[in-house]
Amino acid sequence: MKTIWQDIWFSVRMMLKRPGFTLIAVITLALGIGANTAIFSLVNAVLLRHLPFNEPDRLVMVWEDASFLGASQDTPAPGNYADWKAQNNVFEDMAALQFQSFNLTGDGEPERVTVFATTANFFPMLGAKPEIGRIFSQEEDKPEANKVAVISHSLWQNRYAGERGVLEKNILLNGESYKVIGVMPAEFQFLMSGVNIWTPIRFTQKNLADRDAHYLNVVARLKKDVTPEQAQAEMKTIMARIVKASGESEQLSVSVIPLSEQLSGNMRRPFFMLLVAVGFVLLIACANIANLQLSRASTRTKEIAIRTALGAGRWRIIRQLLTESLLLAIIGGILGLLLAEWSFAFLQQLIPQNIALSAKLGLDTRVLGFSLLISLFTGVIFGLAPALQIAKTDVQSTLKQDGRSGAGTGKNKLRNALIISEVALSLMLLVGAGLLVQTVYKLRYQDLGFQSENVLTLRTSLSNKKYEEHSKRVSFYDGVLERVKHLPGVVSAGYTTTVSLAWTGGGSGLSIEGRPENPNEVINATQRYISPDYLQTMGIQLRDGRFFSEGDNEKTQSVVIINETFARTFRANENPLGKRIKVGEPDNDKRPWLTIVGVTKDIKARGLDADVKPEMYAPYHQVNYNTWAAPRDLAIRTSVEPMSIAGAVRQAVKEVDPDQPVSNIRTMDEILGTLVLQRRLGMMLIVFFASLALLLAALGIYGVLSYFVTAHTQEIGVHMALGAKSTNILAMVLKKGMALALAGLAIGLIASFALTRLIQSFLFDIGPNDWLTFTIVSLILTGVALIACFVPARRATKVDHMIALRYE
User: Fold this and answer.
1) In 3D, which of 176, 177, 151 has the Cα closest to residue 164?
2) End-to-end CA gap in the chain
3) Cβ within 8 Å of residue 379, ≥6 positions away
4) Which of helix, strand or coil describes residue 101?
5) DSSP secondary-structure letter at 192?
6) Quick one: pLDDT at residue 427?
7) Measuring CA to CA, how many Å separate 349 from each of 34, 41, 352, 366, 746?
8) N or C end of the chain: smaller count of CB under 10 Å?
9) Taking residues 183-201, what's their average pLDDT?
10) Spans of all domains in the chain
């Protein structure tokens, strides 16, 4: 123990003796260790932490697998849920949830709230308890029971000022009275963000026999010693039995997904990519410090020789040098922790919204342990090779040098290998960053099929009870549009089911007149019911036919406009104009035939990188069925800054219906920004890490060449004394540095061609081996390397050959 303390004290003295080296080493390590700690804290919060539920590893989501319709995780029908629960032998319990959206009125400004209607066993199965009050009982989950509600912590604080008197208070949801019986904790969250209220689902026997409406989310708890794979196998058997008995499609199956995978499964690969990136940065940092240690070793050979001559063994020398490295790494790790904590506010934005309330970044025990381990590992990595090299010092030859220091061949080879590795790793990071930068740019600025500039959007979801009659809905839409269109700064306005990219849209089966029936063919299209001016407001181009007009109302022929994909898919090789389609079966007398009067350009409606699907638009005046697809989003094109008219639009809605809430007020540009936000943040991180790697690699090249110039000062003096010109000396040093850089460049290019395929799934409209990206990155790296080489090379040309010949 005494010798260990001696080693530590001696290491401190050596660090203080060379403050410049110590400062550079600590800052370099702090950046590398801090980046790794920050990204690990993100991985820990999202992928490694236990979900805040009782025995979360036994919780699974159960979905209908309708892959034949393009939905591998489709929401189950109540009838299927009831049979699953009754027939399975693998689950302890199973609960159902239904997503809803209500208007909250009666005790303040109207507000649109997100609601989960759940079975009474939902909270107990999760092990979730309210912060105050209670949860609803089995008796309150029956159709005839009084209506009760449990509210979220955020709603309690924001609308009711956190008053405990909210318990037993009656609130109005879509005009119906609900008694508040409990408030959930702030960190409680399940499946999605922004849920304000939970109510009993109150299934009727008719509901539980329904296999046509698919709208539930189903969560279950596995029995002990039952694996998700076993549950999957049994549920498939049960589903096959249900399909056979009910006459549903034989292709319909079931999917059992662990809850942890459901909530964070799509984040695993992006986070792994970030871990690889920061790992590269740390390796480059270690290589740099190792190079500094090797350069510094040339000034310590005589010290090591004297200590060896006085009896210090090789292991004792290595231990002393490793102690210095570990001390540097630990100091760098402490500073890295501070940098990591400083980055948490930024990294929190990368956490998926569906777990954001409970997945908070912080320096918990696991993160602190990781930081300590990575610091120790780093200290060994960058310290071991120099220590082994220095410990090989030949005592007699070193003492005979009388103070001269040479550049050992073994040390030079190691230094060169480290620089080549740094350049190769930097190139791989830069290539990845370049591909991701282009991906984000292409996603954001691709041809969307509509014009997003100067468009304000907002939502006015109508209560089904208050606006049950179609005429009342039409009167509301018409009244709002009439007022909004006359506001100063408004160019045009239109209503739609949902604006593009805000929701993927909904669809149901279609019939196409004159098309032979094919039992294996599914005819489906996203349906949006719109006002006459909506398509023009969004700048959606017409390819053929006409737009809707005010004359397309309930008294005229029912019409529809389809997109190009619809025409290609279902009306290939023929002009679709004048042809007719129907929502539902062809013999359904309650649904009219819709005549195609126009074809629009395809637009990005389901997602920036999602394939375009068949889509249809119908005038809301003519549609008194499918109320689930009734208009709720208002799009307004303006000649002024869109948000500047938001207040006036709110007032216009209030004039039509004082109790109607207005929500989701955003510009289309904001919606687009939100869709690329996580990719943009991830891209920014990769670009930062790649830039840091490039800087470290440049410093590494500079350091090696500076050492080369210093170690060969006498040789340079001899060359100059014999008549060598400055350009010859400059070329000699540049050749040395660029040879290392180009070797690293070649290795990095080969490795990048292989590794970029791992990020192919993150790319959009660009190949993993894009030649332009590889070319630009190679030129950037070559240019930076040339600059790093030029500074010490130019210094070499300034050597005074008379002084150099006397140099020791």
Assistant:
1) 151
2) 40
3) 322, 325, 326, 327, 328, 329, 330
4) strand
5) B
6) 94
7) 18, 13, 8, 21, 37
8) N
9) 92
10) 2-46+266-444+677-805, 56-264, 462-660
Judged by DSSP in three states, 598 sits in strand
Return the C-alpha torsion angle 112, 113, 118, 122, nearest 10.
Answer: 170
Listed residue (274, 276, 329, 367) closest to 28, CA to CA: 329
Residue 706: strand, helix, or coil: helix
CB 140 within 8 Å of CB 182: no
Q: What pLDDT, on the 0 to 100 scale, is given for residue 106?
A: 80
Residue 379 has pLDDT above 60, yes or no: yes
Q: Residue 183: its pLDDT value, please?
A: 96
For residue 675, give both structure tokens.
């869709």
State the pTM of this model: 0.82
pLDDT at 329: 87
The predicted model gives 416-445 an average pLDDT of 91
**Is-contact 120 137, C-beta < 8 A?**
yes
Distance CA 236, CA 232 (A): 6
Task: List, for residues 730-746, the tens digit of each pLDDT value.
Answer: 888 888 888 989 999 99
Q: How far apart are CA 203 and CA 79, in angstroms?
A: 11
Per the CB < 8 A criterion, the answer to whether 234 and 90 are in contact is yes
Q: What are phi and psi of 235, to 5 degrees?
A: -65, -30
797 Cβ partners below 8 Å, 6+ apart? 726, 727, 729, 730
Helices 268-297 and 19-43: crossing angle, nearest 10°?
Answer: 170
- The mean per-residue pLDDT over the stretch 412-436 comes to 89
> Residue 167 corresponds to which tokens in the numbers above?
């318990």
For 637, the enclosing helix (H) or strand (E) is: strand 633-638
Cβ-based neighbours of 85, under 8 Å, separated by 6 or more: 91, 94
Asked whether 95 and 121 are in contact (CB, 8 A), the reply is yes
pLDDT bracket for residue 124 (50, 70, 90): very high
Tell me the percentage of the chain whose pLDDT exceeds 70: 87
Residue 364 backbone phi and psi in degrees, to 5: -85, -175
Q: Tokens standing for 654?
A: 């209030």
CB half-sphere exposure, 672, CA atoms < 13 A:
20
225: left (phi over 0), alpha (psi -120 to 50) or beta: left
Gap between the Cα atoms of 68 and 243, Å rounded: 15
d(C-alpha 105, C-alpha 102), whole Å:
9
The DSSP symbol for 167 reads T
Non-local (6+) Cβ contacts of 584 within 8 A are 508, 509, 510, 511, 591
**Residues sharing a CB contact under 8 Å with residue 366, sequence separation 6 or more, in sequence order:** 44, 48
Residue type, 327: L
What does the alpha-carbon distance between residue 754 and residue 488 come to, in Å, rounded to a whole number? 57
In sequence order, the 6+-apart residues with CB closer than 8 A to the CB of 762 are 269, 270, 273, 436, 439, 679
Arithmetic mean of pLDDT over the chain: 86
Do 103 and 660 form a contact (C-beta atoms < 8 A)? yes
Answer whether residue 300 shows pLDDT above 90. no
Q: Average of pLDDT values for 755-771? A: 87
pLDDT digits (tens, 9 = 90+) for 10-62: 667 667 777 777 888 888 889 999 999 999 999 998 888 888 899 999 999 99
